[in-house]
Amino acid sequence: MDNPETKRTSPFNHFYDQDDFYYGLDLRPEFTGYFEKKDLAGKNALDLGCGEGRYAIWLARRGCRVTAVDISAVGIAKLARFAAENGLDIQPVHADVGKFDFPEAAFDIITATTIFDHLNDQTSKQVALSVINALKPGCILYADVFTINDPGYCAITGNPEASDVSDTAAFMARYFKENELKRLFSPLIPLVYRETVEPDLSHGKPHKHGWACLVAKKQ
Ligand SMILES: C[S@@+](CC[C@H](N)C(=O)[O-])C[C@H]1O[C@@H](n2cnc3c(N)ncnc32)[C@H](O)[C@@H]1O
Predict the structure, then answer these.
(1) Which of the listed residues 27, 71, 101 should we mutate to test ligand 1's pocket, taking the one with most ligand atoms within 8 A of CB?
(2) Which residues of the chain have pLDDT under 50?
(3) pTM, whole model, 2 decimals?
C-alpha cells in the first residue's frame, strides 16, 4: 500500500488526497434501483476499481462483507480508514485488477464502476472472464463504463461537444461502443441495460458523461 512507485504513477491519488469524497457518495440509479429493496445481509461482495469506495461503503452499510480493490494507494488507504472508523466490514486491497487473484464462485455481488474503460481491450476481456468465474451461480454483476457518446471521446475525435469534458478524461484507456459492455459479459443474463448521456456535477467543473450501465445475472 505504501509503494512510492504506485503513489507516483496512479493519477487518481491526486483526486482522492482530500478529506471529502472526490466523487461524493451518490451512486448510479441503475445500481440502487436494483439493489435497494434487496436483503443484502451477509452477502459477499467485490468492488473492482473501488476508488475511495462509495459502492463498497453502500454495500457494507447494508450488511455485506466487501472486498474492495484499486490501484490507487491513496484511495485504498482512505477507504481503510473510513471502514475502521465506521465499523464497516470492508477489506481494502491495493492491487491492479489485471493481476488480482479472483477466487472461483465466491461472490454474491460484484460491482465494477468506471473501471473497465480504464483497461485495454485485452485486459478487459481477461478480467471480465475472471469476474464471471468469481460470481456464484444466480448472482449479480453491476458494471458501468463511459461510452463513445461521452464528450471526452468527442474531444479525441474533434467534436465541438468537447466543452463538457470531465477533468479525469485524460486517464481513460478507451470508450465503449453501443452494446459493447453487454457483449463483454454476454455469458451473463442482462436484467437492466441502459445507455444515456447525463450532466455530472459531482466533481470538477460541470460536465457530461455518456454512460452504459449493466445489471446482469449468472445462470
Ligand atoms: C473513475 S474512477 C472510479 C472509482 C470508483 N469505482 C467510483 O465509482 O467512485 C476509476 C478507478 O479505477 C482505478 N483503476 C484504474 N486502473 C486500474 C487497475 N488496472 N486496477 C485497479 N484499479 C484501477 C483508479 O485508480 C480509479 O480509482
Answers:
(1) 71
(2) 1-3, 5-6
(3) 0.94
